[in-house]
Specification:
- By secondary structure, the protein is α/β, with parallel strands linked by helices.
- The chain has three domains: 98 residues, Winged helix-like DNA-binding domain superfamily/Winged helix DNA-binding domain (Arc Repressor Mutant, subunit A); 98 residues, Periplasmic binding protein-like II (D-Maltodextrin-Binding Protein, domain 2, 3-Layer(aba) Sandwich); 98 residues, D-Maltodextrin-Binding Protein, domain 2, CATH 3.40.190.10.
- The protein contains ten helices and 15 strands.
- The chain has a six-stranded mixed β-sheet with strand order 6-5-7-14-8-15, with helices on both faces.
- Helix 7 links the parallel strand 10 and strand 11.
- The longest helix has 25 residues.
- The chain is extended, with a radius of gyration of 26 Å.
- The N terminus is likely disordered.
Length: 308
């Protein structure tokens, strides 16, 4: 890659920006020193220092603060590193997509997921696809609106979401997948709560889902209806973090049953009670009329409870 730009600095600097200059800068920034980058790249310190100097002269400002035996990125350097990280990530993806052989002619299924979606739900849906020798599964995590655009443009085959997309348009088809019970769990020191659930939760330390979660409003409404006010001691989107903290006795947590089933089975958590009439939902979204992969179709059907 060569980017030609008018250079007002004169003939002593580089007249164009190329892949090599960016790669050298990127490695120096990652290693934090010329010496470390030289070992990584296999070139001399004088040559690498010269390349960095040329790049800085071309850009018209330094990219590092020079410290003793160390280079610290300044603000311009941080901006440059963000761009080079993106450039080399995309370059690696391009090379893999074009150069790497695919002798088995694998079908690629690209699955978009929401960050707030339970990783256990996602895992249960993805595992049957991973078990197929003829399929390569790629998982992309983004905001729903970005995933919808990718699905519309043909960059995804399916989206796993905690809500349907019917308000967005009729070009999509949403399948409601199997629902999951929502339960309160805690370590054995909270086992006494079972006898007076849910009122005994009042005032207890709660490890809560953040407000990005689909079920957080329902849980809060449950507490409000029961006149229960737990003490929120932490919040997270990651179900695994909440489960581990609950296992350590920091507080109780309220999660889909399948996300804590192993902990219930091995006794590291106990079920304190079920939040009736609250469920954790997941939706599989595809393009309407899309002739999608037969295996994907069977997995959706396996987990499906209804189609919109």
């Amino acid at each position: 890659m060569v980017i030609s730009i008018h250079n007002p600095l004169g003939a002593n600097t580089i007249s164009s920006l190329n892949f090599k200059h960016l790669r050298y800068f990127h490695v120096i920034a990652r290693e934090g020193s010329i010496k470390g980058a030289c070992k990584k790249l296999g070139i001399t310190q004088s040559a690498l220092s010269g390349q960095l100097k040329q790049l800085e002269e071309f850009l018209g400002k330094p990219l590092f603060e020079r410290k003793v035996r160390k280079l610290i990125l300044n603000e311009a350097g941080k901006v440059a590193l963000n761009y080079t990280t993106s450039i080399f990530t995309q370059a690696d993806e391009m090379i893999k997509s074009i150069r790497l052989p695919n002798p088995q002619k694998l079908s690629v299924i690209r699955v978009g997921v929401l960050p707030s979606l339970s990783k256990t739900h996602i895992h249960e849906f993805i595992v049957p696809l991973w078990k197929e020798d003829s399929i390569c599964v790629t998982i992309v995590e983004r905001k729903l609106i970005d995933l919808i655009h990718d699905l519309e443009d043909g960059h995804l085959e399916v989206i796993l979401s905690d809500r349907p997309t019917s308000p967005i348009g009729t070009q999509f088809k949403a399948f409601k997948l199997r629902t999951r019970k929502i339960i309160a769990v805690g370590s054995k020191k909270f086992e006494y709560v079972k006898d007076a659930f849910p009122q005994a939760l009042d005032g207890l330390p709660l490890l809560h889902l953040t407000r990005h979660s689909q079920i957080r409003p329902d849980i809060d409404f449950f507490f409000e209806q029961k006149n229960i006010t737990p003490k929120i001691v932490g919040e997270a989107d990651d179900v695994a973090l909440l489960r581990i903290a609950a296992e350590k006795g920091i507080g109780f947590t309220v999660l889909p049953q399948n996300t804590v089933q192993n902990s219930l089975n091995n006794g590291s958590l106990v079920q304190l009670g079920e939040l009736k009439d609250i469920n954790s939902d997941m939706w599989a979204i595809i393009k309407s009329g899309n002739d999608y992969n037969q295996t994907l179709k069977s997995v959706i059907k396996r987990f499906q409870s209804q189609e919109l």
